[in-house]
Amino acid sequence: MTQLVVQLPDSIRRRVEQLAATDGISVDQFMATALAEKIAVLEAVDYIPRRAARADEQAFLKVLAKVPAGEPEEAWDKLPPPTEGADKAGP
């Protein structure tokens, strides 16, 4: 492990202490997790377009064609009913 000294505004330090206490973890653990999450987001921003560029639509359609038509038998595999006022077209 490496030690890092960071200067933070008092308001951020207090909030970090509150959130860490709420989670039942140390401030160090909270900060390490927060930094890891930020790194993951920044790496995903780069990764997703690179991965999408390698996509093969024909291969995707071939796999998708293997999915049986109709509703799944298992309750855990079924979609929940649409909520009132939900956009049926999706995002």
Spell the H/E element sequence: HHH
Mean pLDDT: 91
Q: Total number of β-strand segments?
A: 0
Q: What class would the helix/strand composition place it in?
A: mainly alpha
Spans of at least 5 consecutive residues with low confidence: none
Q: Hey, roughly how much beta strand do the residues contain?
A: under 5%
| Number of helical stretches of at least 4 residues | 3
First-last Cα distance: 43 Å
Overall body shape = elongated
Radius of gyration over all CA atoms, rounded? 22 Å
Largest sheet: none
* Helix percent band: 40-55%
Descriptive report:
With 91 residues, the chain is mainly alpha-helical. Helices cover 54% and strands 0% of the residues. It has a domain at 10-66. The chain has helices at residues 10-23, 27-53, 57-64. Helix 1 (10-23) crosses helix 2. It is elongated. The protein starts with 9 loop residues before the first helix and ends in a 27-residue tail after the last helix.
What would the keywords be for this entry?
single chain, 91 residues, mainly alpha, 3 helices, 0% strand, elongated
Task: Describe the SSE topology.
Blueprint: H1 10-23, H2 27-53, H3 57-64
Helix pairs in contact: 1-2
